[in-house]
């Protein structure tokens, strides 16, 4: 057996394998999936010399602990938090060498929600439909990690970056989401459309990789009943029967029958991935392009 593997000693609250996802299969009912914070995942890959499509680990709040069987270079980014190797403090946001058999400990996030761990060579689990990403909705890709999971590693593609640390945006104190109205804003009263972009919302603890749920004023319908199921896109702001907006993230369903009042600009979604429960949310209207 190759020693190019890494053993999960502590899986944490929810740690999954993620890459750029599997776009192009929505017509088959398959979500895109992939890293919720793509810039953070791309940066840690670049720091260890991986190509941008290499698979990384996405942690949630509590980090993880890993033990490689061969010497590897790792980088931890996304949500900031403590990092140690063999019990000694190590750099966050920079390449770090982890000798064979040493324990890499990624501690709980001190801000934000999702951390990213890149390992030189990338996580080399078997791809499904061209991607190694874990999709919590469809069940495609590897299962969320558990203690004792052994992950194969690929062959390093290049040398690590020569930096002491790479700047990364801090998790938002206020989540500002630019939205384009529609396509079903006419299913809501004028007051509800106005409330969406003028009233205060907060990130709900019920948020996950499928959608960022909000707490705040319920949006009143102008029409009763439900739509026939129609296509859903990344960033769609769907309004379920309780009237609280849900912003669809990477593992969102590809169809749905609740009306979509607006769509969030894709560039604003990485910040949504890092907004912990209770973060204020503001929807800002922008014109259709």
UniProtKB/TrEMBL annotation:
User: Which interval of the chain is the signal sequence?
Assistant: none
> Record's InterPro entries?
CT_A_B (IPR003778), Cyclophilin-like_dom_sf (IPR029000), PxpC (IPR052708)
| Transmembrane annotation, as ranges | none
Domain annotation Carboxyltransferase: ranges: 27-289
Which keywords, in A-to-Z order, does the entry hold? ATP-binding, Hydrolase, Nucleotide-binding
Gene3D superfamilies listed in its UniProt record: Cyclophilin-like
Question: Could you tell me what this protein is called?
Answer: Biotin-dependent carboxyltransferase family protein
């Amino acid at each position: 057996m190759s020693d190019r593997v890494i053993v999960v000693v502590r899986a944490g609250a929810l740690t999954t394998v993620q890459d750029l996802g599997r776009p192009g299969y929505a017509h088959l009912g398959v979500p895109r999936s992939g890293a919720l914070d793509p810039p953070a995942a791309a940066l840690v890959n670049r720091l260890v010399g991986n190509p941008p499509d290499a698979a990384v680990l996405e942690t949630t709040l509590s980090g993880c602990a890993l033990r490689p069987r061969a010497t590897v270079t790792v980088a931890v980014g996304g949500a900031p938090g403590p990092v140690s190797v063999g019990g000694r403090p190590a750099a966050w946001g920079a390449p770090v060498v982890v000798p064979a058999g040493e324990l890499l400990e990624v501690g709980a996030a001190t801000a934000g929600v999702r951390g990213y761990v890149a390992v030189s060579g990338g996580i080399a689990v078997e791809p499904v439909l061209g991607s190694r990403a874990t999709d919590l909705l469809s069940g495609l890709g590897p299962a969320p990690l558990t203690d004792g999971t052994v992950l194969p590693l690929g062959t390093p593609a290049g040398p690590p970056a020569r930096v002491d640390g790479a700047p990364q945006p801090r998790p938002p104190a206020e989540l500002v989401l630019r939205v384009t109205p529609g396509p079903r804003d006419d299913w809501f009263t004028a007051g509800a459309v106005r409330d969406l972009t003028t009233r205060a919302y907060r990130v709900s603890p019920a948020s996950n990789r499928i959608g960022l749920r909000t707490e705040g004023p319920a949006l009143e319908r102008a029409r009763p009943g439900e739509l026939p199921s129609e296509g859903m896109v990344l960033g769609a702001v769907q309004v379920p029967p309780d009237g609280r907006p849900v912003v669809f993230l990477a593992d969102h369903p590809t169809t749905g029958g609740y009306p979509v009042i607006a769509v969030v600009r894709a560039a604003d979604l990485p910040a949504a991935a890092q907004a912990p429960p209770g973060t204020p949310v503001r929807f800002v209207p922008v014109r259709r392009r």
